[in-house]
Amino acid sequence: MALHDQADIHPSAIVEQGASVAAGCRIGPFCTVGADVHLHENVELKSHVVVSGDTEIGEDTIIFPFAVIGEIPQDLKFRGEKSRLMIGKRNRIREGATLNLGTEGGGGITRVGDDCLFMTGAHVGHDATVGNHVVMANQSALGGHCIIDDDVIIGGLSGIHQHVRVGRGAIIGAVTMVTNDVIPFGLVQGPRGQLDGLNLIGLKRRGVARSDITAMRAAYQALAQGEGAFQERAGRLAKETDSAYVREIVDFILAATDRSFLTPN
Questions:
Q1: In this structure, are 29 and 141 located in the same domain?
Q2: Which of 145, 160, 181 is where one domain is finished?
Q3: Can you give the pLDDT at residue 1?
Q4: Is 117 contained in some domain?
Q5: What are phi and psi of 52, to 5 degrees?
Q6: Is the pLDDT reported for residue 137 higher than 70?
Q7: Per annotation, catalytic residue among 28, 70, 113, 144
Q8: Catalytic: which of 126, 145, 161, 163?
Q9: Does residue 126 have an active-site annotation?
């Protein structure tokens, strides 16, 4: 066990032999920290938090009561193989959230980036990859093997189907089921998620130039109304655009994927 002498551990907490707890960590009442857990500097477990498995949690992350981090996957194929959960820096993981280990069939690692917010009851499934500055609202869920790029917002009570990719800067409305890939900066809403435009508010908040937004709106119209299949329209855009934002959308569409796409209405 590597417990730094500047870590603050409540007497009622259980920290198993072999765990690594760095300087400035605060482990509150009735928390449980497993033998293969590594907590970096200034991680705080409020109370009644369970952190288990081969789990690494980055600096300044705060985990709120009754969250369960690093438990085995919700996958019937899992047979106890060695797998990991890696969580980055400055994340906020709220009450009752669950983040699971990976599986052998999915690469063995579930990854979470930096500066994310997982609200009450949010779930990150096995082998998912979550980027930086992602927000998952209350009771939203990621199925296994999902890839969620940076700056994505997922509304409350929404579900992302396994193997789905959600591109950078996209926003998913509340109470929405997403079964296919979402282009970068897309706006998805409705009970059975439909691509309903671009996340214009998010783009403006990030200070994206008006010329880039105009180019993206034109590209969206070309994807919605052009001739040929969706990927064919994207291929034509790739030859025509000089916007880095449009190029990001096109590259996302033309990349390999296990799913089809939500296409413009």
A1: yes
A2: 145
A3: 61
A4: yes
A5: -135, -175
A6: yes
A7: 144
A8: 126
A9: yes
Active site residue 127: yes
Q: What is the pTM of this model?
A: 0.96
Q: Which helix (H) or strand (E) holds 100?
A: strand 98-100
Q: Which of 127, 149, 151, 181 is catalytic?
A: 127
Averaged pLDDT for residues 41-49 = 98
CATH number at residue 65: 2.160.10.10
33 and 141, same domain (yes or no): yes
For residue 246, give the 3-state DSSP assignment: helix
Query: What residues make up the domain containing 11?
Result: 2-145
pLDDT score of 50 more than 70: yes
Please say which residue of 101, 129, 145 terminates a domain.
145
Has residue 12 got a pLDDT over 90?
yes
The arithmetic mean of pLDDT across residues 16-36, rounded, is 98
Angle between helices 244-254 and 230-240 (to 10 degrees): 150
- Looking at the fold, whether 37 and 119 belong to one and the same domain comes out as yes
113-117: long-range contacts (C-beta < 8 A, 24 or more apart)? 113/88, 113/150, 114/58, 114/88, 114/89, 114/90, 115/88, 115/89, 115/90, 115/91, 116/88, 116/91, 116/92, 117/91, 117/92
225, 157 in Cβ contact below 8 A? no
Model confidence pLDDT, tens digit, residues 163-187: 999 999 999 999 999 999 999 999 9
